Amino acid sequence: MTEALDRQSLRKLAEQRLGPKPRAETVGEFELLFSSSDSWGASFADNHFLIGPAESVRRCLQVQPQSLASIEALRRSERLVDVSLPLTALTFRSDRQTAISFVELFSEHERPSFSANADAVDRAARSLPYAVNVTMLKDNGFEWTSRSGFGLPGSLVTALAPER
Questions:
Q1: Torsions phi, psi of 88, nearest 5?
Q2: Residue 75 to residue 99: CA distance in whole angstroms
Q3: pLDDT tens digits, residue range 85-144?
Q4: How far is Cα 108 from Cα 113, in angstroms, rounded to an integer?
Q5: Which strands, in side-by-side order, build the sheet including 87-93?
């Protein structure tokens, strides 16, 4: 899913990926296009472009009324993005599980004791803004930037540390 800044170009790319004469179906108020050769689909939902496995795109369209704009952490993360740049890809992901793993890793207590405070930890983890990854096509290749409220060091520690 991405913001559809250049709808015509994205539609051409979708048609290349989905093949000639993709089958169309209406899901809610949106058109879902299906690949003529495999299970991929694509759709424009308001100002967003969705492409991927057709059933995943369908599920996104079906829950669309539960708008992403209603997620405060995502709205805070969107403010970190400079949309004046020539963005090739922009992704958001929750740092919730990484933050919880980090707390567990350095907790003096075993997991059962940690679980007693699970609600407080979960609330704190949900308050983090989403991590943002930006990819831009440059003259000599791609430039990738990542921003996270939890931080790259925290992500690396939890990825490389042994599980408790």
A1: -95, -45
A2: 19
A3: 887 888 888 888 877 777 777 776 666 555 677 788 778 877 888 888 888 888 888 888
A4: 9
A5: 87-93, 131-138, 141-147
Stretch (H or E) spanning 101: helix 96-106
SS3 category, 112: helix
Token reading at 119: 């609600």
pTM: 0.49
Contact indicator for 15, 49 with CB cutoff of 8 Å: no
Secondary structure element (H or E) that encloses residue 15, with its range: helix 7-18
Distance (Å, rounded) from C-alpha 15 to C-alpha 11? 6
- Residue 41 CA to residue 33 CA, distance in Å, equals 5
Q: Round to whole Å and give the CA distance between 24 and 43.
A: 10
Contact by Cβ (8 Å): 77, 114 = no
- Using alpha carbons, select from 79, 72, 115 the residue that is nearest to residue 94: 72
| Cβ atoms < 10 Å from Cβ of 88 | 14
- Distant-in-sequence, close-in-space partners of 39: CB < 8 Å, separation ≥ 6: 53, 54, 55
